Amino acid sequence: MPAISWFAAVGVLLALVAWDLTAAGRDRPLRRCALIIAAQLLVAVLFGAALLSTSGADVAARFFAGWGTSLASTVDLLVVLLSVAAGTPEWGRVIAVVVVVGVLARGTMAFGEPGTLVVGSTSVLLGAAVLWGAWQAFRREGSPPRAASAHLVLGTGVLAAAVLGLMSASAAHAVTGSGPLALVAGVLALVGFQHVFGLVRGLLARMPDAPVGLAVVLVFIGVKSVLAGLAGTGPVHDAQVVLLTLGVLAAVAALGAITAARAPRERERS
Questions:
Q1: Alpha-carbon distance 160 to 76, whole Å?
Q2: Number of domains in the chain
Q3: Which residues span the domain enclosing 103?
Q4: What is the tens place of the pLDDT at every residue in 170-197?
Q5: Separation of alpha carbons 208 and 75, rounded Å
Q6: What's the gap between Cα 89 and its chain centre?
Q7: Which tens digit of pLDDT belongs to each residue from 149-177?
């Protein structure tokens, strides 16, 4: 694709991200959020189809690989933020700042790759921090929830967005072999993030054991990051790992939904 086409694509995606963030902090029906998310996923399919028709199957396949890599990192970021920011009154502002940092981080590294030592050590530190957060969540099980400091929530979100964004862009660049392609894939993976956060946040509010479920997913993310870092790479986000991550999330969500459905019946019996 010509350079002007890449600039146009990035501009459109940034406009979609900005539009998504204008809804930050507003309460929206879950059905509407789900429809918007589906529509934004359709954008990825249409962009891939456009690449297929203009640049061939190889470029389209590399785009989808880069998008999947970036999307897996976005899922990790979503889980981290849900564990710290879901109960924050000003969560909309936090998400807006986090998304902006994520876009900048992915744009910075889309055209290059850091050294193996940097990626590996950063991945280990990220995994250790996530595991520590999961341990704290398990320790607080059954205790009254404590509101986290707004500055702590914002700082945690910004740090996670920066680290995951850098590693995601590096991995996407390695997969796609193209800076512009990695940039488009990375930004596209953040489109609709605020709506996804709002949707999942609303669903978790209906589940009594949601903190425990999030802690389980945090353990998975932390172990994945530590092992990948010790191997000298960042978090692995190939197709198998993406499917495994989504499978873990689906299993935890299903268990949470079952628990939430059974809770009223158990209260009636007692």
A1: 9
A2: 1
A3: 11-258
A4: 778 878 888 888 888 888 888 888 888 8
A5: 22
A6: 21
A7: 667 778 888 888 888 888 777 778 878 88
